[in-house]
Design a protein that fits this description.
Structural class: alpha+beta
Mean pLDDT: 91
Largest sheet: 7 strands, mixed
Order of helices and strands: EEEEEEEHEEEEEHH
Helix content: 10-25%
Number of strands: 12
Strand content: 35-45%
Shape: globular
Radius of gyration: 26 Å
Distance between the termini: 72 Å
Length: about 210
């Protein structure tokens, strides 16, 4: 049985605009009952949403380009953003999509694949990313509403172009790989449905006893 970890002390050593860092002392118990104390610094971060957006009418996907300070890259990625306090993932997804890209789905023609919720870096941060694929049957374009220090470029691209683009975010790649599996399953199902069993060659009849085979 795993004994729960015990936080012996915790001190906030940094507090910024987006996250804070807690310096923690934690007691762990091993299988023999021995007690071990470890020290960890944990970044406390709001949960976020990560969205792969698919326009089903044109079979195109929404790709973004934005400067990322952590990697020091003008990185390609997917629409994403922080959830507000008490906000549900789906509400955050619709809000972030409209703010960053101006895309507003018709929710009556929206299909959502909820990929899952994954920690971005569980050894050092509690940020939980809610990843989903949005299949848009219909949508409208509105003005984008960026934060004061935010600027994001976005464009619709083909599936082939999306796969050819170097996306460096692990959460974005989880969404893309999930969609790749869906497309593979759909292609396989279409191939099975179109297979004409009447075109299967008739099995040759066994030769009669004593017949000479040429």
């Amino acid at each position: 049985m795993t004994v729960p970890a015990v936080v012996e002390s915790s001190e906030t050593v940094y507090r910024g605009a987006v996250f804070r860092i807690d310096d923690m002392t934690i007691a762990l118990t091993d299988r023999r009952g021995g007690r071990h104390t470890i020290r960890r610094q944990v970044m406390r971060h709001a949960p976020c949403v990560v969205l792969l957006v698919h326009d089903t009418a044109t079979d195109r996907y929404l790709l973004e380009r934005e400067y990322r300070a952590g990697s020091d890259l003008f990185a390609y990625g997917l629409p994403a953003g922080l959830m507000d306090g008490g906000e549900e993932p789906m509400a955050a997804a619709m809000r972030e999509l409209a703010e960053e890209t101006g895309v507003v789905p018709d929710e009556r023609e929206l299909k959502v694949d909820r990929v899952g919720a994954f920690y971005s870096s569980e050894g050092m941060a509690d940020e939980l990313a809610h990843i989903m694929v949005l299949h848009l049957g219909a949508w409208r374009q509105e003005e984008r509403r960026f934060d004061g220090d935010e600027y994001v470029e976005s464009s619709w691209v083909s599936w082939r172009d999306l796969l050819a683009t170097r996306v460096t975010s692990s959460n974005g790649m989880i969404a893309i790989q999930h969609e790749a599996l869906r497309r593979l399953r759909d292609a396989s199902a279409r191939a099975d449905a179109s297979y004409d069993t009447h075109n299967i060659p008739e099995r040759p009849r066994p030769a009669e006893e004593g017949a000479i085979l040429e």
